[in-house]
Write a structure and sequence with these properties.
The complex is a heterodimer.
Chain A (H helix, E strand, L loop, with lengths): L12 H13 L3 H28 L14 H25 L9 H22 L25 H32 L5 H9 L7 H34 L11 H27 L8 H32 L2 H12 L3 H14 L7 H4 L2 H24 L18 H24 L5 H8 L9
Helix pairs in contact in A: 1-15, 2-14, 3-4, 3-7, 3-8, 3-13, 4-5, 4-8, 4-14, 5-6, 5-7, 7-8, 8-9, 8-13, 10-11, 11-13
Chain B lengths: L1 H15 L11 E6 L8 H9 L7 H5 L8 E7 L6 E7 L8 H5 L5 E3 L5 E3 L9 H5 L6 E2 L26 E2 L5 H13 L12 H5 L5 E5 L6 H5 L5 E2 L11 E4 L14
Parallel strand pairs in B: 1-10
Antiparallel strand pairs in B: 1-8, 2-3, 4-5, 6-7, 9-10
Classes of the chains: A mainly alpha, B alpha+beta.
Chain lengths: ~450, ~260
């Protein structure tokens, strides 16, 4: 075997199949409790408050005249950011043929799809008249009203819907052989479901050939797409004139931030998955070591751009920019959040310099959770410290989220967890065929 | 086919003429003389009455959700007894290069042929982007469905839409009055006379601090006032090209007191 091995090679092919099918068919009481709680969370913390908001009006939020964007858009960017690593990382690692990708990429891609979905819902939550959402789509209509293609929000609609579709197809294509493998090992309604989903996959040479072609095509397509999506999200802010938002560094800043938070999201997810699904033999400390290196690099890059962002504002030395910076960095409660963000996103990841700490599951979990908290704060600060300090001081007003907004934020996390819980039961969450590639050709008597 | 292509190219050529986009039928402009303004807020009340602006109550006002389309900004400087109070009426500046117009994904706000920045309430989906992009913070949002109790609903102006919950609104320069004047002028086969159109705020101003007119008409009052040495535009450095021109207030000692200094 030419490539480095990342798992114990004494795992047999059958074991892989059985392990993955086991994660899908056997679920304990704990799983159902978790699923029930997450569904309850979605209904009571998200859908019901949202219904209340639609019925009563956006007035139930804490938004007011200068601060028209609040925690909803924070969550939107946060979830788009989380989505950024799964598919992007998977695609980059696929093209560079990195072997440690194989056992983690499936859940990472699912994470992408689910977080884009969560983010997309937040667009509607944020709208004043969400029932008219289809006006933002280019559809032929008798009134001959077209869209404003100058609007960064318009770019958003296209970028996010394209990204969502592409990452969904990418996830699906890569799963087809596994769905077929599952189809051959289950009974009842599952058999029919996976029979339909696997599109009649038989595993012939031609099928593998075309799958590989299509998969490579999507991998290449996804990389520029992912970069463009978060650049475009940043333009929502950077194309305004608001001090603190109007910065040219925003596109790379957001892309780097997105990959950073997304990678941290993957690490957190991997820790949880390998514990709860008992798949420690497929996701090893070696994976955490590699992901830790990635986190370290992204952390340094993010810190550099963050310093640059502050520097540009300070160097411009206009009263507006100075006020925005002062508000963000030295006015409580935002100053506490700002310096907490610096601690979790710049200082704490420095622990990952040491190989021993990178390989430690506990340290990885703490650092990755810290980064995600920090990245959420970053997005929150970008919005809520720029808009309350716009140009005319008479209109300055601080923002604080209302209960409805906070509840929907928690609800969105429930939504994500719910989708994931459903995913691990309905979809092979570890790639069977690629893990087998990694194990290599079995030398023992036990065959496929 | 060749002829058809030529025709299209010919059509596109006019868009390349410098200044094409600035050539509007009218260029409605307001001049506000801060030397005359005494901050009585009559304009605010007149605007509320004319444009069906809801009164939101004490609590919502405290949350900065007042719906006034025009506001008097007050700035207090110094310690008692050396207090200086400056104030300036601010409404939608109808920017020539409006930041809000590029923001709206559905064209709910756009520039019309009179140089006005107009808001189409029916088209608005409520993304808040225009209000966020607006450097003057003049856009107002309908946070709730505002009810008007009997008999207050009887005082609604029939010429103006009552906006529903979830849409953005802002000063229109009383577009209904401009429309009416244009109709009248068209019927009488003439152009609009200077001073024929007066938005509610201008009409109600007791000191005559506000003047409204067509900047394309070199004989108009605003055209002459705009030549004043005291003229300035609010936040001009942002290059939004506002249509509201302020005339600085000059103090006894010769210092000027715009709120910008």
């Amino acid at each position: 075997m030419a490539h480095q091995q990342h798992m114990k090679s004494d795992i047999s092919y059958r074991e892989v199949n059985e392990d993955v099918v086991r994660t899908m068919t056997k679920s304990g009481v704990g799983y159902y409790i978790a699923l029930f709680l997450s569904i309850a969370g979605v209904v009571f913390l998200w859908w019901l408050p949202w219904a209340y908001q639609i019925y009563t009006g956006q007035g139930v939020t804490g938004l007011q005249t200068p601060v028209f964007w609040g925690i909803y858009l924070t969550n939107f960017i946060f979830w788009i950011g989380i989505s950024h690593s799964g598919t992007l990382l998977s695609a980059i690692l696929f093209i560079t043929q990195t072997p440690w990708r194989r056992s983690i990429y499936r859940s990472a891609e699912a994470m992408t799809f689910f977080s884009v979905l969560t983010a997309a819902v937040f667009v509607f939550v944020h709208m004043g008249r969400p029932w008219n959402f289809y006006w933002t789509m280019p559809y032929p209509n008798q009134r001959q009203i077209w869209l404003n293609f100058q609007s960064p929000l318009m770019f958003d609609v296209f970028a996010i819907s394209t990204y969502m579709t592409a990452s969904m197809i990418f996830l699906y294509f890569g799963s087809i052989p596994d769905l077929a493998a599952v189809r051959d090992r289950v009974t009842g309604w599952r058999k029919e479901l996976y029979g339909a989903l696997s599109l009649g996959w038989r595993g012939t040479d031609a099928e593998w050939h075309w799958l590989n072609k299509a998969y490579t095509f999507f991998a290449v397509l996804i990389i520029p797409l992912a970069v463009s999506v978060h650049s475009i999200v940043s333009w929502d802010f950077a194309l305004s004139k608001v001090p603190g938002l109007n910065k040219t560094i925003f596109a790379p800043y957001f892309v780097v931030g997105a990959i950073y938070s997304g990678s941290a999201g993957i690490v957190t997810l991997m820790v949880i998955l390998r514990k709860t699904l008992r798949i420690e033999k497929y996701i090893t400390t070696n994976h955490f070591d590699k992901l830790g290196m990635l986190l370290l690099v992204m952390s340094l890059l993010w810190s550099y751009i963050n310093v640059l962002e502050v520097f540009t504002g300070w160097y411009a030395d206009t009263s507006f920019e100075n006020e925005a910076l002062k508000y963000r960095m030295f006015t409580p409660p935002y100053s506490y959040m700002f310096w907490l963000m610096i601690f979790t996103n710049t200082l704490m990841p420095l622990l990952l310099i040491f190989r021993k700490l990178r390989a430690s599951i506990l340290i990885s979990l703490i650092v990755s959770l810290g980064i995600n908290v920090g990245m959420w704060i970053e997005r929150y600060l970008i919005i809520t410290t720029s808009l309350p300090r716009k140009f005319l001081p008479y209109m300055w007003h601080d923002y604080s989220p209302s209960l409805t907004e906070i509840s929907m934020t928690i609800g969105s996390f429930s939504f994500f967890v719910m989708l994931f819980l459903l995913f691990i039961k309905l979809w092979p969450s570890v790639s069977i065929y690629e893990v087998k590639e990694d194990i290599g050709i079995p030398m023992k008597k036990e065959g496929h | 086919m060749g002829k058809f292509l030529d025709k299209i190219l010919e059509r596109f050529k006019i868009y390349r003429i410098p200044g094409y986009y600035e050539k509007y039928d009218h260029k409605w402009t307001m001049v506000i003389d801060l030397d005359r303004c005494n901050g009585c807020e009559a304009c605010v009340v007149a605007c509320n009455a004319e444009n069906n602006v809801p009164v939101v109550g004490k609590e919502e006002c405290g949350n900065k959700r007042t719906l006034n389309w025009i506001r008097i900004e007050r700035y207090v400087e110094g310690e008692y007894p050396n207090v200086k109070v400056k104030f300036i009426p601010i409404m939608c500046q109808h920017c020539g290069k409006a930041p809000c117009e590029t923001a709206c994904p559905v064209y709910a706000t756009y520039h019309n042929q009179d140089g006005l920045n107009v808001q189409v309430y029916n088209r608005c989906v409520g993304t808040f982007t225009c209000a966020t992009y607006c450097p003057y913070d003049v856009r107002r949002f309908n946070w709730f469905t505002y009810k008007r109790d009997e008999p207050l609903n009887q005082q609604l102006n029939p010429d103006v839409t009552v906006r529903e919950m979830g849409v953005m609104e802002k000063c229109t320069f009383c577009i209904q009055r401009i429309r009416a004047a244009k109709d009248r002028a068209k019927d009488e086969n003439r152009s609009i006379r200077d001073g024929e159109v007066q938005p509610a705020c201008v009409q109600s101003c007791p000191t005559g601090a506000m003047t409204f007119g067509d900047m394309n008409d070199p004989d108009s009052k605003v055209f002459k006032l705009a030549k004043s040495q005291r003229k300035y535009k609010l936040l001009e450095e942002l290059n939004a090209d506002p249509s509201v021109i302020y005339l600085k207030r000059v103090m006894k000692d010769g210092s000027s007191a715009t709120h910008e200094e």
